[in-house]
Amino acid sequence: MSLYSLKDELEKHLSKRTNELFDIDDKIILNDLTNTYFEGEKRNSKLAKFGRSKEKRRDARLVVLALVVNIEGFIKYSSIHQGNIADCDTLSTMIDKLASHTCKEKKAVIVLDAGIATEENLKLITDKGYKYLCVSRSKLKDYKAVQDRLTVLMETKSKQFVRLKAVSTEKNTDYYLEVKSPAKEMKETGMRNQFEQRFEEALQSIHKGVHSKGGVRKAEKVHQRLGRAKERYPSVQQYYIIDVSVDEKTKVVTEITWKKDEARHSGKSDNAGIYFLRTNLNVADEVSVWNIYNTIREIENTFRTLKTDLDLRPIYHKNDDATMVHLHLGILAYWLVNTVRHQLKSKNINSCWSEIVRIGNTQKVVTTTGKNSLDQLVSTRKCSEPNENLKGIFDILKTNYQLFCLYLK
User: Fold this and answer.
1) Strand pairing of 109-112 and 28-37?
2) Residue 82 CB neighbours (<10 A)
3) How far apart are CA 327 and CA 329, in angstroms?
4) CB burial readout 338-350, b (16+ within 10 A) else e
5) What does the alpha-carbon distance between residue 54 and residue 227 come to, in Å, rounded to a whole number?
6) How, if at all, do strands 109-112 and 131-135 pair?
7) Which of 52-56, 334-338, 339-343 has the lowest mean pLDDT?
8) Alpha-carbon torsion 28, 33, 36, 42, what sign?
9) Partners of 132 in the beta sheet?
10) pLDDT tens-digit series, residues 384-394
11) Binning pLDDT at 50, 70 and 90, where does residue 147 land?
């Protein structure tokens, strides 16, 4: 707990030290949140709360971890919050801490995901003198292409093509970049088709109940079933026109029919795979905006390393103090992990930490025991010869192949 009390001082020192060691200039800063869940009830915890779990663990209480990270993956600042805090409620404190942990003369561009990018937060960033780049929280409706700007077709690292087009709207003076992603379109279309199928199956079940002996036919009950189906599939129910015929005397449903509103449905299909990037930067070209935004993948890698490789998921501690100390120790361990990975990535070794550990485990410690001429028992403990992959890692890190050699009597 005494180490956790020095959290701010430690993070400030490590932030400055890694920038000096690797000549890093924090021009772009990434801000995002994740959560991890608890095993156990945690009924008396002030920290553990039910919320929207990233791992879909609706049955477990959560704790939220907020990070500010540079594009090299080094943490600038971290904070721990209750599991039910909204993404957009953490930014003010993070920006104030960011100012003390980075160079004050050079204001960084803050890259945000849509969950944090409320109008209030974007105004807050601007008022504090920073630039921002984020995913727009809503799709633009009334917009037009910017004149004299070319539409760009770009190949991503995953060998997918995206279409980039600068657009403008009268309601806002920010720069908007329309991104059309075939991969995202395929995913959205697949999900929509799945939801439509399930919604139609629910309608078919209601229809069957109306025409079956002993089925649900009372108008009030039928409308309740329809309401539950619409509530379950809100993203697709709006594209259906549903007619319910009721006998006014008996208040019994005699028929239920439905059909797709083709005009609205086709309009939704045309917009599939489209999202908008928004920034208050003075933008020179569309590719620059796209490249800056995609640095946010680095903070996703940070969360993955913390939760999977460094075991911050799940948490088993009973009290809140132990939980916060555990999370802080994981973050300190991450500084070591990212320092190693940063040096390896500079030599085009982009392996995740678990793969680096696996390669390291190929070198074994061998203990040999025997008797000398004086009939004394002597033991020698040495490392085996590393394989070529591990030698390459040692060479980059400037580490001795033989980590230790002990002679014991």
Assistant:
1) parallel
2) 16
3) 6
4) bbebbbbeeeebe
5) 28
6) parallel
7) 52-56
8) positive
9) 110
10) 899 999 999 99
11) confident
**CATH of 4-135+281-345 among 1.20.1340.10, 3.90.400.10, 3.90.180.10, 3.30.420.10:** 3.30.420.10
Domain locations in the chain as residue ranges: 4-135+281-345, 191-265, 362-408
Beta carbons within 10 angstroms of residue 296's beta carbon: 20
Q: What are the pLDDT digits (tens) for 26-56?
A: 889 998 989 999 998 888 899 999 998 888 8
| Torsion sign across C-alpha atoms 248, 253, 259, 261 | positive
| Token representation of residue 245 | 């015929």
* pTM of the complete model beyond 0.85: no
d(CA 57, CA 79): 22
In this structure, which amino acid lies at residue 70?
Answer: N
Cβ atoms of residues 305 and 352 within 8 Å: yes
Distance, CA of 228 to CA of 23 (rounded, Å): 58
Check: CB of residue 287 under 8 Å from CB of residue 177.
Answer: no
So what's the pLDDT on residue 55?
Answer: 85
Q: Which of 201, 274, 221, 263 is nearest to 238 (CA)?
A: 263
Task: Tell me the per-residue pLDDT of 177-207, one tens digit each, with 9 for 90 and over.
Answer: 999 998 888 988 899 999 999 999 999 999 9
Q: What is the DSSP letter of 251?
A: T
In the 8-state DSSP scheme, what is residue 351?
Answer: -
Among candidate residues 206, 237, 202, the one with its CA nearest the CA of residue 221: 206
Q: What's the one-letter identity of residue 379?
A: S
